[in-house]
Design brief:
Layout (H helix, E strand, L loop, with lengths): L1 H17 L16 E2 L10 E5 L3 E6 L10 H4 L15 H10 L5 E6 L3 E3 L4 H9 L3 H19 L5 E5 L2 E3 L1 H4 L6 E5 L3 E3 L13 H4 L7 H8 L3 E2 H7 L4 E3 L4 H9 L6 H11 L14 H8 L4 H15 L2 H12 L2 H14 L4 H17 L5 H11 L17 H8 L18
Parallel strand pairs: 3-4, 4-6, 5-7, 6-8, 7-9, 8-11
Antiparallel strand pairs: 1-2, 2-3, 9-10
Helix pairs in contact: 4-17, 5-16, 8-15, 10-11, 12-13, 13-14
GO molecular function: 3-hydroxyisobutyryl-CoA hydrolase activity
Catalytic activity: 3-hydroxy-2-methylpropanoyl-CoA + H2O = 3-hydroxy-2-methylpropanoate + CoA + H(+)
EC number: 3.1.2.4
Length: 420
């Protein structure tokens, strides 16, 4: 019960902080402790870098917002100049580290209580309101490119997921070599609840989960904890959060570029745990039975039938989530996961960029704008979805999300690299 209560509090923190446009000055990190990437020494920096013996540690540094990616943090993924400071941004740094024989591996972590709660979509909502659609597309363009860089990185990449890990947070960590989850880790893809679709490579890593767990997570937005992430393969290691300082110290002093040496360090402090009896992973038979169907309507019918037959309150709670979500997003998300099962990560990212561009442009539907408004801006939790029901969602609407962009809107351009 304590674990379930903690997961409920984590979700509350996510809803309150993940997309909160207000950023407060951090008081628990001193700029003198780290080297700032681009910001002047007297300012807050959304991303910090620490030089270690044989590695570099990247710290996502918006702790008051669970390190949600905002316009400031997104700028670190761009290769541009900021004022008189050369744009030696994170993507450029990653590439230079890859070529530096003195750097063996890279570690990424978050400040405070979260790893990364994903994108600050309230700020994206504000850009849509102001008509800055191209700026929104640039967000997705740059961060998807960075995710692909992590996925194809030659050197080992370690992400310490000690806290909320959602959306873009999963996108910049799951493609890497090692993903360390803890008892404080909470993972989810709740995009259908705000009229969007699971992106940031989610259609790839969710579609490769056992059975139909990926479809379930994509459509419902349900959460997994650290133990569950390891059990289904989203994370590679699990450890108590009390061991995080020790494992960070071990990594800082490690002299190697060999993944096996890093594995030894991680295993030294890792723990073995198993999903609780209340875990959704104990319901794989029901999930596979209900979410294997080809359409959202059939999935809902199967859940309703199961609820009547078993008198299981869990089925009713899942139905409530599905009936709250955007009908169009549900259909788009299901098709995205199904296509992702037969695509490589780069193909998924290119397709997701098309889908994200359609969502922010609002040419098919304004559900994304409306979903963020209802849940995170006005907070009336009463979105007016368009179309308002599953039966009103046409096949043409869904197809448009997956269609190539116009001749003046190029597809996502990823570098030609062998997928690692």
């Amino acid at each position: 019960m304590q674990r379930l209560a903690r997961r409920g509090r984590d979700l509350h923190c996510f809803c309150r902080n993940f997309l909160n446009p207000t950023t407060r000055r951090s008081t628990n990190t001193s700029p003198s402790d780290y080297s700032l990437i681009a910001d002047p020494p007297d300012s807050d920096s959304a991303v910090l870098v620490e030089a270690n013996a044989c590695s570099r540690t990247v710290i996502l540094n918006r702790p008051s917002a669970l390190n949600a990616l905002n316009t400031s943090m997104y700028s670190f993924f761009l290769l541009v100049s900021v004022g008189s400071i050369e744009g030696n941004k994170l993507q450029k740094l990653y590439k230079s580290w890859e070529e530096d024989p003195g750097i063996g591996f890279v570690v990424m972590k978050g400040s405070g209580r979260g790893f990364c709660a994903g994108g600050d979509i309230v700020s994206i909502h504000d850009m849509i309101r102001k008509g800055n659609i191209e700026e929104c597309k640039e967000f997705f363009w740059t961060v998807y490119n960075f995710m692909y860089l992590v996925a194809t990185y030659i050197k080992p990449h370690v992400a310490i997921l000690n806290g909320i890990t959602m959306g873009g947070g999963a996108g910049v960590s799951i493609p890497g070599t090692f993903r360390v989850a803890t008892d404080k880790t909470t993972f989810a893809t709740p995009e259908t609840l705000i009229g969007f679709h699971p992106d940031a490579g989610a259609s790839f890593h969710l579609s490769h989960l056992p059975g139909y767990l990926g479809e379930y997570l994509a459509l419902t937005g349900d959460m997994l904890n650290g133990v569950e992430m390891v059990a289904c393969g989203l994370a590679t290691h699990y450890l108590p959060s009390a061991n995080v300082p020790a494992i960070e110290y071990c990594l800082k002093n490690l002299i190697t570029d060999d993944p096996s040496g890093i594995e030894t360090c991680l295993q030294k402090y890792s723990d073995r745990d198993y999903p609780s009896n209340a875990s959704v992973l104990r319901r794989t038979e029901t999930i596979n039975k209900c979410f294997r169907h080809d359409t959202v309507e059939e999935i809902i019918d199967a859940l309703e039938s199961e609820a009547v037959k078993t008198n299981d309150g869990w089925c009713n709670s899942i139905l409530k989530k599905l009936k709250y979500a955007s009908p169009l997003s549900l259909k788009v998300a299901l098709r995205s996961i199904r296509e992702g099962r037969f695509q490589t990560l780069d193909q998924c990212l290119i397709r997701e960029y098309r889908m994200s561009s359609q969502a922010v442009a609002g040419r098919i539907s304004c559900d994304f704008y409306e979903g963020v408004r209802a849940r995170l801006v006005d907070k009336d939790f009463a979105p007016k979805w368009d179309p308002p029901s599953l039966e009103c969602v046409t096949q043409d609407m869904v197809d448009q999300y997956f269609s190539p962009l116009g001749p003046l809107e190029p597809d996502l351009d990823l570098p030609k690299k062998a997928f690692m």
